[in-house]
What we know:
7-stranded mixed sheet; Rossmann fold
Amino acid sequence: xxxPIVVLGYGAVARAYIxxxxxxxxxxxxxxxxxxTVAAVRTxxxxxxxxxxxxxxRSQWSAPTALDExxxxxxxxxxxxxxxxxxxxxxxxxxxxxxxxxxGAHLVTATKTTLLHGWRALDAASRETGRAVKLSGTAxxxxxxxxxxxxxxxxxxxxxxxxxxxxxxxxxxxxxxDGDSLxxxxxxxxxxxxxxxxPSADLSGRDVATKIQILTGVLWSRxxxxxxxxxxxxxxxxxxxxxxxxxxxxxxxxxxxxDLDIPDLVTVSIRAVTRESPLGALNGPEKAVIFDCGEFxxxxxxxxxxxxxxxxxxxxxxxLSLALETAPGLH
Length: 331
């Protein structure tokens, strides 16, 4: 099965995704019977159509055409969206996602704001067209939290979902417990390739709240954009609490929580947890999500890499799954 792909965006995640396909295309063909082919790359300023496995130099790209025209011309079956998750670009990101579905392509997105601002529109377009929306990369990169949420939603009563799903926050809090200043901790996270250039969404709690909001959409069929958020940020004043917690054998963690009883509220707080607990055992950029399944106990998903490559691999997995699982809806 040949899957021609249009990639939206050409940042670190998009480049990692394209590189993975180029490096492992033969393996995917052999193992899964799926020939992933990047047919075009498009940004808001330029685009290029691709023959073979070489991406033309940016100087050779042309002005972007309408997305639906590009999808039709290259006969794309999948549109992969890896553009920045910011509110300023959310309207365009949602429009591109809906356009992809209405043009006959499945959508694989790692752009959280697309889902936060366009969940209902995407769901409606998906069901009308019979095309799928895959979103694993929005809820923790390589951490398969969205996959587990989708599985549990099929008959398991999940009463709450909580977790640490921001690798930068976990890394920074651990550095603060060692006595680092907030600025030094953030710089160390950047050097390690964990933190974004602007870590404000990581430190404020907004990023982790958004990921949990998306999981509530999968679990409880709620519009994640309708949820209110209460956020406790990581500030310089947290350092003394982090140091004291370490002295007690604890670690501070940035924890986001949503409860079925109040599904339209996500809270983010800084909590002290034991080192032996699922959240306390996290190291560096690792993440964890805990699904409380009531009388059946918690289901915990942990691990996953916080990096462009981790997000790209989540999208690779989603893309390959389209060869076997193409039911409409957001998955």
